[in-house]
């Protein structure tokens, strides 16, 4: 297969049957391997989609700089897209240890990195860039950008439906910006309203189910606010997961399925296996493996 750029490799990821992790005699767990996108995460899809949409709407043109506040994979995806499309990019991150590997990746790709003392201050700084010079700076703002969930409705969900649609009984997903859950959830409900949509919450951030909110210990999962693009009406079931359960499930998946993914994937697989116990052997529970595990080495995740 020959492609014109690495951007052409985004999407069309395989769905893997997790034979060793599916409950015996119950539904099979299938996981969409989004970590096989070029920069190793599901965020490659919305990164490209947001830039393409901004170009189409004349909000972004050559000579401008893309600025985004992100503590994770969105920054990597946006930097990759910016490199190919010849934009400068500034990634603003909070000063926490867990993002050090992300920081190194985007710097290696050519991004300028600015560190702040909180994610909230990172968002405000990004908005300040655009407000003070809108002709020079463009902020995609994944938490508000409808291109984020839309790309999952148009691509990720359609790939799932094409591959395993008739047997799907439930879809399980974590949430950060909410783009993946909302985008895929909308398409699956349109395809079959009876598909159960299961949302995963960190047990320390019960933002939907209620309770004391501290901070998420599962990187990339469970912000302490609900984004503008998140459609909470899609939620059928909420399941809470601890950081320890997510870590153990990630390690178990690596040692039984040979798939090394991050803690959000561990949380997804852990819950998907629990949900699968409620369905029969002819059914399928689908989940997402959002990113690679290698970028969490050294962060006490494994």
TrEMBL record:
Enzyme class: transferase
InterPro entries: Cys_Synth/Cystath_Beta-Synth, TrpB-like_PALP, TrpB-like_PALP_sf
Domain of life: Bacteria
Tryptophan synthase beta chain-like PALP domain boundaries: 7-291
Pathway connected to this protein: Amino-acid biosynthesis; L-cysteine biosynthesis
Catalytic activity: O-acetyl-L-serine + hydrogen sulfide = L-cysteine + acetate
Molecular function (Gene Ontology), one example: cysteine synthase activity
Required cofactor names: pyridoxal 5'-phosphate
E.C. number: 2.5.1.47
SUPFAM superfamilies from the UniProt entry: Tryptophan synthase beta subunit-like PLP-dependent enzymes (SSF53686)
Pfam families: PALP
Record's keyword terms, sorted: Amino-acid biosynthesis, Cysteine biosynthesis, Pyridoxal phosphate, Transferase
Family, similarity comment: Belongs to the cysteine synthase/cystathionine beta-synthase family.
Protein name per its UniProtKB record: cysteine synthase
Organism whose genome encodes this protein: Clostridium pasteurianum BC1
């Amino acid at each position: 297969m020959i492609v014109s750029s690495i951007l052409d490799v985004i999407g069309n990821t395989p769905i893997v049957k997790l034979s060793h992790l599916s409950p015996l005699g119950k539904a099979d767990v299938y996981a969409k391997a989004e970590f096989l996108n070029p920069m190793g995460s599901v965020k490659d899809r919305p990164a490209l989609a947001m830039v393409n949409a901004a170009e189409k709407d004349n909000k972004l043109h050559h000579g401008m700089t893309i600025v985004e506040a992100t503590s994770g994979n969105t920054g990597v995806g946006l930097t990759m897209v910016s490199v190919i499309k010849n934009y400068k990019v500034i990634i603003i991150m909070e000063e926490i240890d867990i993002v050090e590997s992300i920081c190194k990746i985007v710097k290696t790709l050519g991004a300028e990195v600015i560190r702040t003392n909180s994610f909230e201050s990172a968002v405000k700084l990004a908005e300040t860039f655009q407000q003070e010079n809108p002709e020079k700076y463009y902020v995609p703002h994944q938490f508000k950008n409808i291109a984020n969930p839309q790309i999952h409705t148009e691509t990720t969900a359609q790939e799932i439906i094409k591959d395993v649609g008739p047997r799907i009984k439930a879809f399980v997903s974590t949430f950060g910006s909410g783009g993946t859950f909302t985008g895929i959830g909308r398409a699956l409900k349109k395809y079959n309203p009876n598909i159960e949509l299961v949302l995963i919450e960190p047990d320390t951030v019960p933002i939907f189910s209620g309770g004391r909110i501290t901070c998420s210990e599962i990187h990339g999962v469970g912000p302490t606010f609900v984004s503008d693009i998140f459609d909470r009406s899609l939620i059928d079931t909420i399941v809470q997961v601890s950081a320890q359960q997510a870590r153990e499930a990630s390690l178990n998946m690596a040692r039984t399925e040979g798939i090394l993914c991050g803690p959000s994937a561990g949380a997804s697989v852990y819950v998907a296996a629990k949900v699968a116990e409620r369905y029969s052997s002819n059914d399928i529970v689908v989940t997402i493996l959002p990113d690679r595990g290698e970028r969490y080495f050294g962060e006490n995740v494994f």
